[in-house]
Structures are given as structure tokens and as C-alpha cells.
Amino acid sequence: GMTGRLDDALATFRRVNAPADAWQNMAFVHEQRRDWEQALACHHEAQKFDPRVTIPRSLLAKLEKQPEPT
After folding, report:
1. Residues with Cβ < 8 Å from 5, sequence gap 6 or more?
2. pLDDT tens, residue by residue, 51-60
3. From CA 44, how far away is CA 24, in angstroms rounded?
4. Is 15 left (phi over 0), alpha (psi -120 to 50) or beta?
5. Following DSSP, what letter does each residue of 15-63 receive, concatenated?
6. Is the whole model's pTM more than 0.85, yes or no?
């Protein structure tokens, strides 16, 4: 399924990038899929490896615009 492919993508990103960069690449993948929460989670993982990582304002704006669950 999709989870397996995303795991494979992360493994590939980790082989060719530093850990923070790999997580930021995964965040980009999730942003392209409009999965804002997962993108944010990936940025937070990146920050664990590099505290200089910032979360894009555009992503934060998209998260703020989401309707509250009922």
C-alpha cells in the first residue's frame, strides 16, 4: 500500500541525504499530496536532527484554514 511506498521513499531519502534533509523531503512529498498534518509531522522530525529547520509559513497557513472536525 501507500504506507510501504512512503517508507521506501524515506529509506531512499536517508541513503542519499542527511536525516534532517530526508525528513524535509518527506514533508515535501506529503505537501504535494495535500496531507498537511503528515507534512508538519515530518518537519518536526527534521527539527529533531537539525534545530535550524523551519516550518514553512505556507504550510502553517494551510493547517490554520482547515475546518475543525465535528
Report:
1. none
2. 999 999 999 9
3. 9
4. alpha
5. HHS-HHHHHHHHHHHHHHTT-HHHHHHHHHHHHHH-TT----HHHHHHH
6. no
